Amino acid sequence: QVQLVESGGGLVQPGGSLRLSCAASGITFSMYKMNWYRQAPGKQRELVAAVASDGSTNYADSVTGRFTISRDNAKNTAYLQMNTLKAEDTAVYYCNANLYSDYWGQGTQVTVSS
Fold first, then answer.
1. How far is 14 from 3, CA to CA, in rounded Å?
2. What per-residue confidence (pLDDT) applies to 94?
3. Which of 14, 68, 84, 110 lies deepest, with the highest CB count within 10 Å?
4. How far apart are CA 34 and CA 41, in angstroms?
5. What is each CA distance from 60 to 10, 24, 68, in whole angstroms?
């Protein structure tokens, strides 16, 4: 059974930082491309950042320079370090594992507010 479990969300002030984690089980983690998506109220889910099996990364323009995606294959975990957070980063953040199939986590809420 495949499981992706996100953690690390919460309430943070503008300019603050959070680190999201996505712990995977039931898959050969190192083979999967790991993605972070987010969905704000009333908006479509959007890709925020991705890290391929070879470690290459890509980011949405809106988070480039502020967010960093990484992976630890020994721990079967992907991370999203989010710095200089803005109100518009408020959303539910979802972890996604992609290879021949797509697997999703349950999501973690990130709220940026003073």
1. 31
2. 98
3. 110
4. 23
5. 21, 23, 11
pLDDT of 7 reads 96
Q: Which residue has the tokens 């996100």?
A: 6
- What SS3 state is found at 101? coil
Per-residue DSSP letter, 37: E
What is the side-by-side order of every strand in the sheet holding 3-7? 3-7, 18-25, 77-82, 67-72
Helix (H, G, I), strand (E, B) or coil at 93: strand
Q: How many CB atoms lie within 10 A of CB 15?
A: 11
Report yes or no: 29 and 76 within 8 Å, Cβ to Cβ.
Answer: yes
Task: List 92's β-bridge partners, or say none.
Answer: 39, 109
Average pLDDT for runs of 10 along the chain of length 114 = 96 98 97 98 97 97 98 98 98 97 96 97
> Which residue bears the tokens 């992609």?
98
DSSP 76: T
**Per-residue tokens: 114:** 């003073």
- The residue written with tokens 């995977």 in the block is 24
The H-assigned helical ranges of the chain are none
- Quote the pLDDT of residue 53: 97
